[in-house]
Structure formats: C-alpha cells, structure tokens
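input
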Amino acid sequence: MRNSLKKVYSLKKVFNFKSTTFILVLLILILIFAFNLKLIKACYYLNVSGLFALKGNEKLSLEYLKLSFDSGVYSGGDYYQHYILTNNLDSLRRAYEISSSNFFYLTKLASASIEKGKWFDSQKYFSGIKLARYLAKEGTSFVYSRDNDISRKGLFYLSFARKISSDPRISYEFGRAFCWRYNSFDKGSLLISAALSKDPKNPSYYREIGSINKRMGNYSKALSYFVIANRIDPNDYWNFINIAEILRDEGYFDEALSFLGKAREVNPKIESAYYLAAGIYKKLDKLDNAYNEYQKIIEIAPLSYSPRYNFGVFLYSVGEYEKSLTQLTMAIILKNDHLWSYYYRSLVYEKLSKLNEALVDMEKVASYDPENDSFSRRLKDLESKVNETSNNKTESH
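output
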C-alpha cells in the first residue's frame, strides 16, 4: 500500500513538472509571437512611411512613422527616418546608439555633426585616423564642385582632416585643391612639399610638384621633378608626356618626340601622346607626319567625336577645307551638341563660300551660348554677308 502511494505521488510530481514546463513554453511562445507581431507591424508602418517620403508627402510619412514608434519596437531605421524627415540630429544619434555597428549611420552622424558646425563632436564617433580618412575622402569629392559653397565645404573638411592626422596623403589632396581649384599654387605647393618630406618615395608627389612648376613657368625645376618621378615609377606614361611638353616648349622637338615614343611604349593607346606629336610635326612643317598622328588617334577611338573634331581643326588651320569639312561633320554625327564642331564647320563653310550653311551652323552655336558676345558678332556678320549676297543676286537678275 505504501509503495503504491509513493508511485502515485511520484507520478503526480512528474505530471506537475511537465504541466508547469508546458505552460512556461506556451507563455514564451505567446510572448515571441506577440513581439514578432509588433515587429511586423513596426516594419510595415516604417516601410509605408518610407514610401510616402519618396512621394514627397512628409505629413503622411510622419504619421505612419509615429504608428511605427507606437508599436513599441524602436529600431535604428525608425530614428533614421525621423532624422531624414525632421533633420533632427538627436534622432540620427539615437539611430546610431541602437545600431552602433552600422557604418552608414556612423558616417552620416559624423558628416551631419560637421555640417552643423560641431566639428569636434564628430570625433566621438570616429577614432582620429578613421575620421581623418573619412573627411579627406568626402572633402576631395566636394572641393572640385563648381558650386562654391560645396567646394568650400570640401576645403574645410580637408583642413580639419589635416589638423587631426599627419597622413601625408591628406596634405597632398589639400595642396592639390588649393592649386587646381583655387589657383593658389604657392600655398598648394607648400602642402604637397610637406607631404613629400614625409613620404619621399612617392612618385605622385614629385609629379604633382612638377606639374605645379610647369604651370608657373619654372620649366627647369619642373623637369627635375618629372625625371625623379620617372625614375621611381618608369611605368607612369604621364611623366614621359610631361617631360615631352617641356622639351617641346623649350624648342627641343626631336627629344620631345623621343619621350612621346617612350610614353606610347608604356601605353600605345594614350591619345595625348599622339596629339602632342601631331602638334610638334606641324611646328616642324611635317604635315604628312601630323596627318598620320591624327589618323592613329581615330584608329584608337573610332567612335569618339574628339579625334574627328581635333583633326578637323588641324585641317582647317592648314587650309585643307574639304577634308576639314568631312572630319567636322563626322564629329557632329558622333556628338550632335558639340558647340565647337559647329563653330569650326561654320568657318569652313565660309572659306568654301557656302554662306547659308555657315549661317545655319553659327545660329546653332549662338543658340547654345547666347551670352557670348563674339558668337553674336560673328552671327550678325554672317547675316550681313548672306543678305548682301542675296541682294547682289537680285540686282543681277
């Protein structure tokens, strides 16, 4: 009897344990389902909010975003969407706090902090070197913009990057921006020289200083920098081309052609080498050689308008008007909105006494750039010539 009672008691304990476990599992499943239901609802409202934002309806977008928040599941996406709609930096900061491994939020937060003038706040989100690299990358992309405000923003980014990092590449990009965007060659060359002092085996720095000196007319100094760059990296064909340009400008035509030949050995399809060679042959009055150089460029880029245009201008300059007309017409076929092709074809037509055709092309040119005084004057001059010719024909009849 006692044994039977013990068995019953044991079975009861087992049953109670299993029942409790079952209830706990069931409760956990219900909670998971409820959470997932909230998550599904939150995702749905967030997506709808995004769709309305894309359609430009910010009011409805904010309403659906509020429903997403009301669901009780707060995601980085919710706060980022709120930042997009309200430009509230705290929302972006909250998005990053929820998803701190999200690099996109990280970069947006650093960039937004800087845009709002909180330069040093941005260092909270990056280590110094990472922030400097990010700023240098963004600054380089902004600084060459034609929009002056965006360009200055890029300059500030590069300036700040240089303050927090000694990386010579940042000084290099900062210096290039001063030179080629702001024409401040003295300041730019100092920055690039500073980069060179930290990394004296970088051929790009030598080539850049060479280009700056060439622009400033310091040809002997430029030549020395290009020669050093060439020794470090003999496969950079631009060094050969830069050296050839200086030799050409100094009147050393044969030597220049020799360096252009070396550039073509490294890269047989570099168009600049052929253009320069054609120009030198023209100076030497070797027109057949120049003609052949242009033919080679056309073979390299048969579907590009540029070789045809440049060949047409060359032929116009040497009085080959019919051939020039052919090349300029081909250039227009390949790019029918290229202003200068129409302009030079107008000149060619005038030389061929085809004034009506010249006038049509010049009207096209003037329509592309109506503010250009020289175009307007030439258009009026052609109109006068066409009218005069027409009047003369009428009188003769």
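quick obs: DSSP finds 20 helices and no strands in the chain.
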